[in-house]
Amino acid sequence: xxxxxxxxxxxxxxxxxxxxxxxxxxxxxxxxxxxxxxxxxxxxxxxxxxxxxxxxxxxxxxxxxxxxxxxxxxxxxxxxxxxxxxxxxxxxxxxxxxxxxx
Length: 102
Description:
Number of domains: 1
Order of helices and strands: EHEEHHE
Strand content: 25-35%
């Protein structure tokens, strides 16, 4: 399954937010059961808007993550200070046709 998150980042805090997001994602991927990583995107229409898609083994793993203490409290604190979360929503993955070959 995939979780989709959207944030509005404060002007001038884009790099701070991106670095904190990367740190949080690496920590989550290495420490949290079922976390498979995430991809961060930035809107071309509105450069203050960022979106991430995170891959999880199951809804139960994601739900346990959301109900636990942050895996990297400092990274989450920095992200929160630099942005406003607009939404978080989960989706069942129907089919993945991305090319993962490098």
